[in-house]
Structure to design on (213 residues):
């Protein structure tokens, strides 16, 4: 199961980030395509105005915790699937502002999840972890909920409290777009494709972190 995070106020961008286009394709659509290429048969959007996001062609889940940041988005998604039968083994949640990701990049996390079936979360990493590109298991939900209710909303700190496995991803794949200036500096998709054609981007399995008891 794949979920694209499409909520948030997009204040720095000044427009709905999910619908910002890269070479004529909405960023959220690029992320959704990468999730499908990585094997997610069903891809949904979470958060935002369903009418505004209708051009994406994705079912839009209501944001259970609007204004609470990415952790609220992740928790809301996990709570939804907690009651779903059959329950998915994991939910691949990716922010809409990571349009350079490809299925090959996300495949590395899928492999990490297969290799580490006992961890709560498999998360992308460059020089540090990228919590908005991760596979979350429902085993994590109670600890996430407790932190959220206690007011601890920092994603990095949350992952430190879980059993996690980190997967190294090419930093270029995790280049996000938050402002018009970043959008203006962003390479066009044809440039990204050209770089890829000269050789595969590296994505290697990283390390496993066990939370303290």
């Amino acid at each position: 199961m794949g979920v694209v995070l499409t909520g948030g106020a997009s204040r720095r961008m000044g427009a709905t980030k999910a619908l910002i286009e890269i070479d004529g394709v909405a960023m959220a659509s690029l992320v959704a395509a990468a999730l499908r290429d990585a094997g997610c048969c069903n891809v949904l959007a979470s958060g935002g105005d369903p009418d505004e996001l209708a051009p994406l062609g994705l079912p839009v889940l209501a944001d259970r915790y609007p204004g609470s940041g990415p952790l609220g988005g992740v928790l809301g998604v996990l709570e939804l699937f907690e009651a779903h039968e059959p329950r998915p083994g994991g939910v691949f949640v990716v922010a809409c502002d990571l349009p350079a990701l490809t299925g090959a990049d996300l495949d590395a996390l899928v492999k990490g999840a297969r290799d580490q079936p006992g961890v709560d979360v498999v998360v992308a990493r460059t020089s540090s972890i990228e919590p908005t590109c991760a596979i979350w298991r429902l085993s994590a939900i109670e600890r996430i909920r407790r932190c959220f209710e206690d007011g601890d909303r920092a994603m990095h700190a949350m992952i430190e409290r879980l059993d996690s496995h980190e997967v190294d991803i090419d930093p270029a794949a995790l280049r996000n777009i938050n402002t018009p200036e970043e959008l203006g500096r962003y390479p066009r998709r044809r440039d990204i494709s050209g770089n890829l054609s000269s050789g595969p981007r590296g994505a290697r399995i990283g390390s496993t972190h066990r939370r303290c008891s």
